[in-house]
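Something for you to look into today, if you have time. Could you write out one complete protein record for me, on any chain you like? Leave the record below and I will have a look.
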Amino acid sequence: MSSEAAGEEVRRLVEIAAARFSKREQILLGLGAAIAFTAFWISGRVFRIPTYTHFSASLLQQPTAITPLLVTAITLGLSVLIASLIAGKVGFDAGLFCGSIGLCALSIRGGPMRFTLQSMTGRELWLMLALEAALLGAIVFGGWLLQCALHHNGWLHDDSHRHVVSEIHESIDQRLLSLATNVVVMGVVMCLLATSDRKAQVIMAVGISSFAGTAVSYFLVPTRPSPWFWSAPLIVGAIGYLMQYFGNGAGWEIGEVRGTFAALARPLPIDCGGVTHAAGGPAR
């Protein structure tokens, strides 16, 4: 390929990328995200999730664990439905993107990891957090299935036209490789950024590392559908919790997360769940 042809191809891809999200589409996404965030904020206040604001934000650590999970699942489903109807023309995952931003409202209402650790009396809390990450993953996956149902009934269109790569790997081994790349890259970046459990720092660390992991994995092994990308933050969080449980590090008794890979366990499951698609989606 000549330099002129190469330059033309680069310009074409730049034009396609720039046209991905018009001003109108950005406004629709912003509106959908605002509605989802408001819905979760109101649900959190009405059902007291968490029970005490700016303290433990673990859903399973609330007085009745079933209620927060059900409220979260129902609110996410409604958010995905409404946001898909508003911003569905932007892309297939627009509804789940907005719903994930809404989950951040519950994260903001809660406090950092230290309050969750100080409220427990045994190492089993790490298993509880790993279970919570899995349950949140199931809830978000349910939101994704809702999108699939909307697409099946003609309410959403496939966004394959937004993919500018020449090849999409859909075999299971390539999908697993893409997920593994995402998890590794995200874990490395998390170790650099999540140096404390402060809420703002943790959310930013998860968001930046999730974006970086998705961007690298999609560049190296592009695949579909989106769960192979947005599941990485929850997987990284679960790995961090299990490493704390099976490791011999101390400090959790006084609310500190210690160890070589302590950064992976500093975000709460709701922190990972809230940023999971919000950061991973745009990278694609």
Observations:
- The radius of gyration is 19 Å.
- The chain has a mean pLDDT of 86.
- Residues 125-152 form the longest helix (28 residues).
- The chain is about 65% helix and 0% strand.
